[in-house]
Automatic annotation (TrEMBL):
This is Dienelactone hydrolase domain-containing protein. GO terms for molecular function: hydrolase activity. Residues 38-252 form the Dienelactone hydrolase domain. InterPro entries: AB_hydrolase_fold, Dienelactn_hydro. It comes from Phialocephala subalpina. Transmembrane segments: none annotated.
């Protein structure tokens, strides 16, 4: 397992629960689809950019704060597309009152690959028009699976130069075969460690092995680094900060 530059972990404060995002929202046209709102933060003149894929709750101050953090610490531009168009799952309905199957059907209706795939293409094309030369991506939970789907798609497999999977959901061991670019695997204690280990083993068999990194946050719950976390809790806020620092070092080394 490769080491991550992490010299700022002792100086950057834990994330805040009352954070106010510093970015702005633009709208992109998606061929054959609905207009796509995108949260943009960081230097628009940067030659390196990141695309973040959120969890099932959609746009949230926590994920916006994380994007702002990466933009500020890396000097990159960071984009958070709103694939759900403001219709993410209600955080107050957890666990789902009408059952998990109802929730899964809803997320599929607003966040299927048929929707997310074209949205990602439109986002990357926007960045390339701006002169961006290297693009990475990170995904939380739902977003981790979408990055695996992107890796499996001929139209998307070369969009990103490095990807980070943060407490990813619905992955299978075979998803580890899909990635051809460096991967940061950042599980929480809420994922199936057998699956996480199998994916990591597959990554270690590839030419990219030396550029891949893994950092487990086994004391963190699933969602600790995204919207499903209370950053009033200093421990959770500190772990979230540390997870983003892993991403910062990883992307700085690979983009």
């Amino acid at each position: 397992m490769a080491d991550i530059p992490n010299e700022q972990c002792c100086t950057i404060p834990p994330f805040k629960s009352d954070y106010k995002p510093v970015g702005r929202t633009i709208t992109l046209q998606v061929p054959g689809g609905e207009d796509l709102p995108v949260y943009v933060t960081g230097s628009e003149g940067a030659k390196i950019a990141l695309v973040g894929i959120y969890d099932i709750f959609g746009v949230h101050p926590n994920t916006q704060q994380g994007a702002d953090h990466l933009a500020q610490q890396c000097g990159f531009q960071v984009l958070l597309p709103d694939f759900f168009r403001g219709k993410g799952w209600d955080m107050n309905d957890m666990p789902p009152k009408e059952g998990r199957e109802k929730m899964q059907a809803y997320i599929q209706s607003i966040g299927s690959w048929e929707i997310v795939g074209p949205d990602l293409l439109a986002t990357v094309e926007h960045l390339k028009r701006q002169g961006v030369e290297s693009i990475g991506a990170y995904g939380f939970c739902f977003g981790g699976k979408k990055l695996a789907q992107a890796a499996a798609s001929p139209a998307h497999s070369t969009l990103f130069n490095a990807v980070a999977l943060v407490h990813p959901t619905n992955l299978s061991p075979s998803d580890g075969d899909l990635f051809t670019v460096p991967v940061a695997l950042i599980p929480s204690g809420g994922e199936d460690q057998t699956v996480m280990n199998a994916i990591w083993e597959k990554l270690q068999e590839k030419e990219i092995a030396g550029k891949c990194v893994r950092k487990d946050f086994l004391e963190g719950h699933h969602g600790f680094a995204s919207s499903r976390s209370d950053w009033n809790n200093p421990k959770l806020a500190g772990m979230a900060r540390d997870a983003y620092e892993v991403m910062r070092g990883f992307f700085a080394a690979n983009l």
